[in-house]
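Hi P.,

Sorry for the delay on this. The queue was packed all week, but I finally got your sequence through. Input first:
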Amino acid sequence: MCPASLADESGRGFIIPIGGGEDRVKEMQIHRKFVELSGGKDAYIVVIPTASMLSETGEDYNRIFSNLGAGKVDFLPITRRVDCENPEFFEMLDRATGIFITGGNQLRLSAILGGTLLVTKIRRQNAAGVPVAGTSAGASIMSEHMVAGGQGNESPAEGTVTLAPGIGLTNAVIIDQHFTQRNRLGRLLTASSFNPFLIGLGIDEDTAAFIGPDNVLEVVGSGTVTVVDAGQLTHSSMWDAKAGEALSLIGLRLDVLGEGCRYDLKARIGYPPPAHLGDAPLSPSET
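Then the structure:
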């Protein structure tokens, strides 16, 4: 499952994976920035709470975004695959200026939404310029390849991560969430070893990667985004590792990005915040 095709990539909407546990009470800077990107007082935000088993999740996010000045907020009460065929939901997505996917269980999310026309509409709306944000499970499912489960507090090893298809808003990254809090570096390294083309993004709680249409992400929040680049891998033992066997991965590059840092997903180069640009390598356009 790939992103919807687009003649001009510059028109694509932001993709915003959030590591979960975001501040919903004080500064709410992640939610605030999402509302601004969605149009502020003119925004129409549609929330998809399917991953959560809590009945109040949709209403909670309605309140949060409304309190931050969004013009209108609705949520789609999707609990079964048949709900994904509701024409009213299609019409709401067609009018949306921002789409938000809540946390919960990513396998529940993929089992209900995966392969439906509703997901196709989400991809097409993003391709047309609508920002799509997701927190926790909603972040993991954004990529073509989704981290569906696995053990934290482990070294990279065969069998320590389970992958499943995501909804394919991007095919350039694979995303893990609650990253530092649940010690998930080992499983992200393992996931990256399956396909060195993918860039691994490990996103902490109360932290988001705002991936723009230029494929440059900016870190917003109180934690960090860990970037695993396996593109220059010179050796991987994944292909013949036995179950539970520790992996050898040589040539990996790892960057840890805090608030205001940026990362160019095409050039695979990280940049510090603007105040520290003197410490950064020049981008291709600056050389």
